[in-house]
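Hi there,

I know you've been waiting on this one. I reran it after we fixed the sequence typo, so this is the corrected version. Both the input and the resulting structure follow.
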Amino acid sequence: MSDGNFNRALLPKNELSAGIRAGKAQMRTKAEQSFVETIDHFLPDLSTEQKQKMKEEFMNHLRGK
């Protein structure tokens, strides 16, 4: 009987890890969309190239690079 401690060895690997990856991908997409909307709102005069560079830098930070 479980004492309430979480044991990863008892969980199915594929289903859990796939769900976690899917959740992370959704959050990255939401963060990217929010960043683009924020940049468009506060810095509307920036060129498309500058916005793209800022978005790429932000996404690199999100990925931990």
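Quick highlight: The two ends are 42 Å apart (CA to CA).

Best,
R. S.
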